[in-house]
Amino acid sequence: MKKLLMMVSIGLLAVLAACGGSGSENGESGSEATVDKLVFADAGWNSIRVHNSIAQKIIEEGYGIDTEVTPGSTAATVQGLREGDIDIYMELWTDNIKEVYNEAIEAGDFEKVSVNFDDNKQGLYVPTYVIEGDEERGIEPMAPDLKTVEDLKNYPELFEDPAEPGKGRLINAPSGWAVEKAITQKMETYGLNDSFVNFKPGSDAAIVASLADAYEAGEPWVGYYWSPTAVTAKYDLTLLEEPAYDPEVYEETKGTELPPNDVVVGVHKDVPDAAPKVVEFLSNYETSSDLTEEALDYMNENEDASAEEAAEWWMNEHEDIWTSWVPEDVAEKVKESLS
Fold first, then answer.
1. Other CB atoms closer than 10 Å to residue 133's CB: what's the count?
2. Which of 132, 236, 240, 311 has the lowest tally of Cβ within 10 angstroms?
3. CA-to-CA distance for 91 and 47, rounded, in angstroms?
4. pLDDT band at residue 32, thresholds of 50, 70 and 90?
5. Residue 178 to residue 9: CA distance in whole angstroms
6. CA gap 240, 125 in Å, rounded
7. What are 35-77's pLDDT values in tens digits?
């Protein structure tokens, strides 16, 4: 009798084990998912939050898998992706972390599954009114001949650093960002170090606050930023010109445009086996800078709107796009959940 009970117990445990993490239980549309939760990276900017929210909505409602988000710096979240603390990274700016990215791909720590968008821009911006003025705001052109980064050396007094009168202030990227080193090298290459302070803010938020204060006051400002972002969607900015990107020149002096950046979707190496249908969906995930900025514009125009709300708005506006990424049955489940 004891032997019989023991055999029945073992059989029940085997059945339960077979059911746990199955595709049917996790809504994995016919695949064998072995995860109950997938973790996304939030590296601190709104566009990654919007893309996270779009993908989370599809994964949760369409595939029945829970998700959560881990916030942190680029360095910390990329390391988390390498180590498996993070499963999905919706906006890996590959050229900004080229060494680490190539090393991780070569080591097989994570996989690139798609290019989210590759039509982005980054570099040194000024408010357009600095060059062209703004008649509506009563702002006269301050530097009508300012076209290139190198031209900045003619205008240090216009961008005066309050802490070092006589020198201009150029707002770099925060210390620790890969692009900060590139901007620092550019300043040397373009001969700006004698006339400009290389100001390194503590965070992206500090850059935005600095720009917002100057913009609202109609004052001159020059600094690093990138698009698509809520900032470039909100403010009328002009990207200062540099010579066309040349890999050899850029490697030696950084004296060209910043390299074109494939912004990719990456997953930890274990995810393709653990959630193959989710990875199949993510491999189809493709947008553009313009499509991304639409969601960011929505957040700007609706000041209380969260990234999640912007994502839902975007999905309602672009049903034809996101439904092409997933099977019909998954799309129907997600559509039913949208408000």
1. 16
2. 236
3. 8
4. low
5. 57
6. 6
7. 899 999 999 888 999 999 999 999 999 999 999 999 998 889 9
Q: What is the pTM of this model?
A: 0.75
Per-residue model confidence as pLDDT tens digits over 221-258: 999 999 888 888 889 999 999 999 999 999 999 999 99
pLDDT score for 28 = 55
Contact 322, 58 (CB under 8 A): yes
Cα gap 8→239, rounded to integer Å: 71
- Distance, in Å, from the CA atom of 37 to the CA atom of 64, rounded to the nearest integer, reads 9
- The phi, psi pair for 122, rounded to 5°, reads -155, 155
Q: Please say whether the beta carbons of 27 and 64 come within 8 A.
A: yes
Kindly state the tokens that stand for 44.
């601190």
Closest-CA residue to 158 (of 189, 130, 194): 130
